[in-house]
Amino acid sequence: MELRKAEQELDKLCCEWKAVRRKRPCYEEETSVDDNAMENSKIMCDSEILPSWKDLISRIVDDDIFPRVEEADEEEVIVEAETDPVDKSMPDDAGQTSTMEAEDEPGYSEWGMLIAGSTAAENNAKENAEVPPIMKIPSKSNEKSLSSHGEADDSFDDEENSVTVENAPPPEILSQLESLRHNLERLRPKIDKFIARLTESDPVTKKPRYGEKAMVRVKRIVRMYKALEIGVSLAFDDKDNGETNIIQQIKAQIKVHDAQIQAKNRVIQTTQQLEAERIEQERLIAEQIAREQRIQEELAKQKEAEELARRAHEARLRRIEEEQRALDAEAQADRELMASVPVKGVDGVRMQIDRMRAGLKDDKKALDVALGSLYTLFDQIVRKPEEVNFRRIRRDHPKFMEDIGRHEGGREVLIAAGFGLEKLDGVPCFFSKEPHIESDMDGWSEWFDGLKKTLEVIEEEMIK
Predict the structure, then answer these.
(1) What's the pLDDT band for 133 if we cut at 50, 70, 90?
(2) Interatomic CA distance for residues 435 and 420, integer angstroms
(3) CB-count burial class (<10 Å; 0-12, 13-18, 19+) for 417
(4) Picking from 159-173, 362-376, 424-438, which range would have the lowest pLDDT averaged per residue?
(5) pLDDT tens across 151-190, in order?
(6) pLDDT at position 163, please?
(7) pLDDT value at residue 380
(8) List of long-range contacts for 173-176, beta carbons under 8 Å, 24+ apart
(9) SS3 string of the chain?
């Protein structure tokens, strides 16, 4: 399990190396539209910034990274292999068990315990099933080339020369390279442990700790790790010739770009400030012009207001005179209306009803409507004398004018019955004022008796 995880992590890191190598540190605004310039940029990135995976693998020397096995131990292993035709594979520390060459032969554990055997085909199928597709164990025909120079790892580099280099922001490339270095540092203890175990052997069987295929896998991930380590070192460490490394170049590019952005922002800020000053100057001039115009307009409005006030005062005086004349005319009409009813009380009511009957002698229906409306009006007052709304009748009310007011003697009946002419809430009305029952009991009784007698007279007239 530990070996498989290491394989997966290193495969992922190799893919990240391949991906970051395809990127050219360049800001979008710096991208040239010239095809030749773009092509030169791709060549420079592909050949000078980061080495290819094939180039990294070619720098690996097995003698420098793998410990040598003592010759005595090798001879002992060879003798045991000649005397025992069965290859008893030992499980690696990550839980991986290599296959046996012979079928149905038992294998031995790390401590010499016998475990059940299985066919070579089954073991191969199980082992290949546990390994990711990119990590499938090669057949014996190519195991030699795999273990000697790691040429099988060249599959990571098959498409590098044909892939187009893409422009990417330098901060993005810097972040990816730093992440790659961090992940390699995290894997270093595990790789060192794998390298140390290459020379370890089972204390009982005296056989190597890893089987043949497990040994191939371990050496493969060690080569991949060392290759990535060389690539990261080339990116982060200073060169022997005194030139700056790639990371420093990228940081310098970022610094230059940031300085350019700051300079550009300063230019923009200065331009905006000048534009703001120009706008402010124009605003001040416009305000001065507007202020002068406003003063002229205020003077003109003041003169116009004075003229309007003079005219309004004259119109108000005329309106007051007209209103006073109207009031005087209305008061005169009210006095004439009140004077037209010299007799008050029951006799006066009969006289006015007789006038109305004489005027409507050819329209009995209108007479009946008028008498019925008078009866309803006085009946409401008699039933509820304290209700003010029953004792207040608008003189210009359409219903009153249609039923009673338009006939000769109709309004006079109310005056004869004790109604006065008043303005209530600014509305001309016929109003029967109720005496105060507590302070003037006799006056109230006389007022109420007059209303009842008027109702009796109207009832008698309706029967005729």
Answers:
(1) very low
(2) 13
(3) buried
(4) 159-173
(5) 444 444 445 555 577 888 899 988 999 999 999 999 999 9
(6) 59
(7) 93
(8) 173/20, 173/23, 173/25, 173/250, 174/247, 174/250, 174/251, 174/254, 176/16, 176/19, 176/20, 176/23
(9) CHHHHHHHHHHHHHHHHHHHHCEEECCHHHCCCCHHHHHHHHHHHHHHHCCCHHHHHHCCCHHHHCCCCCHHHHHHHHHHHHHCCCCCCCECCCCCECCCCCCCCCEECCCCCEECCCCHHHHHHHHHHHCCHHHCCCCHHHHHHHHHHCHHHHHHHCCHHHCCCEEECHHHHHHHHHHHHHHHHHHHHHHHHHHHHCCCECCCCCCECCCHHHHHHHHHHHHHHHHHHHHHHHHHCCCCCCCCCHHHHHHHHHHHHHHHHHHHHHHHHHHHHHHHHHHHHHHHHHHHHHHHHHHHHHHHHHHHHHHHHHHHHHHHHHHHHHHHHHHHHHHHHHHHHHHCCCCCHHHHHHHHHHHHHHHCCCCHHHHHHHHHHHHHHHHHHHHCCCCHHHHEEECCCHHHHHHHHCCCCHHHHHHHCCCEEEEECCEEEEECCCCCCCCCHHHHHHHHHHHHHHHHHHHHHHHC
